[in-house]
Amino acid sequence: MDPVFDIIIIGGGPIGLACALEARQKGLSYIVIEKGALVNSLYNYPVNMTFFSTSEKLEIGGVPFVSNSIKPTRNESLEYYRRVAISATLNIHLFEEVSTIDKTNNGFTIITNKQNYTSKAIIIATGFYDLPYLLNVPGENLPNVTHYYKDPHFYAFQKVLVVGASNSAVDAALETYRKGAQVTMVIRDKEVGERVKYWVRPDIVNRINEGSIKAFFNSTIAAIREKEVDINTPEGIVTIENDWVIAMTGYQPNLSFLQNIGIELSPDEIRKPYYNAGTHETNIPNIYLAGVICGGMNTHSLFIENSREHAIKIIGDIISKK
Hints:
This protein has helices at residues 14-25, 40-43, 74-87, 167-178, 201-209, 255-260, 304-307, 309-321; strands at residues 4-10, 30-33, 92-93, 98-104, 107-112, 116-124, 131-132, 145-146, 159-163, 182-186, 214-216, 220-224, 228-233, 236-241, 244-247, 251-252, 287-289. With 322 residues, it is α/β, with parallel strands linked by helices.
């Protein structure tokens, strides 16, 4: 007979790991199930990305995070969370995706693409990086279009169009430009986003002002072809030559997964999941939410630094029931 775990944690990001550390410390049996690599969202960040937060604000489980500078890089964060998992011998199953959760008399049956598990409680900490906002324009499915940006060298000496004006879009534009790409930006608003990191924003503004990077403001993509892109601008359609489109349009949480298992969402556009703010328990007893997923479509309200405490609240409530 398969063992019954106290907790199944869905999502192996920093907050999922924080929940595992807290469960381990309190003597609860658990498994972390992650559909991709360890801290998969961070792995998919751009290679040269630098966090806005300081390293101490990214710490989990009281384990110190020492970085070379005040603000750590993507590679340093991957190293840190990997070492946390190793040092605590966390029970993690990677590249395993949860498809269904069924309620049973004694708890839940969790069905994945590899096997089934039985658990008394579930923590969902799935983040929001897996589902990009689509442009919904002709040609978006072409092989020269991506919603994920990794390494600038790939785009050297190419005509690159970057869609968006957030941190990820600005990083992609600046890095590919400095590798020799001819960069154009399509920005929906009248200026570069105000949330762009304060030490980066002047750089992109200056590059646009001097003409090194071409920017179309108050504009959107109309259509994408293999070697051209049509842009909706205030002056009408503009067609430019193009090799690659990097659509940094943002990402959204998998709220359909929550709905399918019966978790209630707010009826407004935020679609915030219902949960008790003190315990993080949803409308389904013994199913909890942790991390960015708690904010619904408002993905800018929660970060690693202000979600770490979720683990303490959740594990505390689970223990109180035992």
